[in-house]
Amino acid sequence: MKIVRESPTSAIVSFKAGSVEPAHHHTFGHDLVVLKGSKRVWNLSKKAKYDLVVGDYLFTPAGDVHRVKYFEDTEFFIKWEGKWDIFFDEEMEVAKSEISKEADDGFELVK
User: Do 62 and 29 touch, CB atoms closer than 8 A?
Assistant: First the structure.
């Protein structure tokens, strides 16, 4: 992960292709818009997954546990409310294992 630009409540962030964010949550909701690349977000709290490409927007509510996989080099704008925090809900190895068996994950793909 690389922070390209940051203010007190927003940032432009980039991840390399193949990167994974293990399941985590925040005490605030956040909005994001994909500027480059593509990614999949699993919202474990809602049992939903989202494939996002350039121009797509996603809001994740406070407390929702989510996991992310980056399909290609990706950059996105993210805005949050209040002080930044992050609480991890799984180890990286668990995240990668869950992603590898995603065909059977029971999550609804939201378009």
Answer: yes
pTM of the full structure: 0.90
Q: Which residues contact 77 (CB under 8 A, 6 or more apart)?
A: 10, 11, 12, 32, 33, 35
Copy the structure tokens of residue 46.
């809602």
**Cα–Cα distance between 82 and 50 in angstroms, integer?**
25
The sheet that has 10-15: what strands, in order across it? 2-7, 10-15, 74-80, 30-36, 57-60
**Token couple for 108:** 């609804």
pLDDT, one tens digit per residue, over 33-70 is: 999 999 999 999 999 999 999 999 999 999 999 999 99
